[in-house]
Specification:
By secondary structure, the chain is α/β, with parallel strands linked by helices. 40% of the residues lie in helices and 19% in strands. The chain has 11 helices and 9 strands. A 6-stranded parallel β-sheet has the order 1-4-3-2-5-6, with helices on both faces. The protein has a 3-stranded antiparallel β-sheet with strand order 7-8-9. β5, α8 and β6 form a beta-alpha-beta unit. The radius of gyration is 19 Å and the shape is globular. The structure holds adenosine monophosphate. Residues 29-30, 36-37, 39-40, 146-147, 149-150, 173, 175-176, 183-186 line the site of adenosine monophosphate. Residues 29-30, 36-37, 39-40, 146-147, 149-150, 173, 175-176, 183-186 line the site of adenosine monophosphate (AMP).
Length: 285
């Protein structure tokens, strides 16, 4: 496994793989890697001959400076995880490489980026779309892999890839969870032990809402049941708990309920967490 820092080195390594007829899979990350990231590497390796992972904590997508400053950094461990997974190339650029002096362009995604995270983290998806477009341009993969854990992010990137004719397939991969259902996240290490126990309420509430939908309850009833489950946790400050169409992230009708995704964001013990579950496991279109 090679670790490179410059655009020239990443382009050369990918060009070399291409001259050997290899297909290129790409997994962008912000480091602090865990089994959720490893599942993306595994899928990329199963589908492609040559896999590139990037590790870059993107300041442009943080609306809260203390969140950026406190973002976990586990550099040596990250490289070990990539090596064990079988990643071929790690692209770990410096901030100045991605945002050199005078950098002054930003990608502004449309309607799918506006509600939910877009409302609660102003500018977040501009930062995500800008860095992902840059990374896709630098790496030039055939396929890029993203977690459904960040469901709205996946929808935003899908839309950008289509709207801007990026010529890359965007694959959404299932969420990897802890034994009690908590979605794995780099931020989970920031939970105190009490908050860690309470954090399982997000996935429990999502399951409750989905069980209701599958049992034939209305969307309003299922949403109310999920919200009730969230409200039993004293330390959870809920930003949203909604049931929407998985492609548009707008309202979903009762007769298209199999297209539904349940989305939640809550701050538990001072740590903001997001999670979601789909009615069925179909990928976004
Ligand atoms: P991050 O490093 O948090 O920016 O995440 C990098 C990629 O890993 C994104 O596409 C995330 O959606 C994905 N990811 C994060 N957590 C999980 C998880 N628990 N299961 C699957 N994918 C995940």
């Amino acid at each position: 496994m090679r670790v490179v820092k410059t655009p020239l080195d990443v382009r050369r390594a990918v060009a070399d793989a291409r001259t050997h007829g290899r297909t290129i899979g790409f997994v962008p990350t912000m480091g602090a890697l865990h089994d959720g990231h490893a599942s993306l590497f595994a899928r990329a390796l199963a589908d492609n001959h040559f896999v590139v992972a990037s590790i870059f904590v993107n300041p442009m997508q943080f609306n809260d400076p203390s969140d950026l400053a406190g973002y976990p950094k586990t550099e040596a461990n990250d490289e070990a995880i990539c090596r064990v997974a079988g990643v071929d190339l790690v692209f770990r650029p410096d901030n100045d490489t991605i945002y050199p002096e005078g950098f002054d362009t930003r990608v502004v995604p449309g309607s799918v980026a506006r509600p939910f995270e877009g409302e609660h983290r102003i500018g977040h998806f501009d930062g995500v779309a800008t860095v992902v477009l840059k990374l896709l341009n630098l790496v030039g993969p055939d396929v890029a892999y993203f977690g459904r854990k960040d469901f709205q992010q996946l929808a935003v990137i899908r839309r950008m890839a289509r709207d801007l004719n990026l010529g890359v397939s965007i694959i959404g991969c299932p969420t990897v969870r802890e034994a009690d259902g908590l979605a794995m996240s780099s931020r989970n290490v920031k939970l105190s032990s009490d908050a860690r126990t309470e954090a399982a309420c997000l996935s429990r509430a999502l399951s409750i809402a989905l069980d209701r939908l599958r049992a034939g309850d209305s969307i309003a009833e299922a949403r109310a049941a999920g919200r009730r489950a969230m409200s039993t946790i004293p330390d959870a400050d809920v930003d949203y708990f909604e049931i929407v169409d998985r492609n548009s992230l707008g309202p979903v009708s009762e007769d298209m309920v199999q297209q539904a995704v349940v989305l939640v964001a809550a701050t538990v013990g001072g740590v903001r967490l997001i999670d979601n579950m789909q009615y069925d496991e179909g990928d976004l279109t």
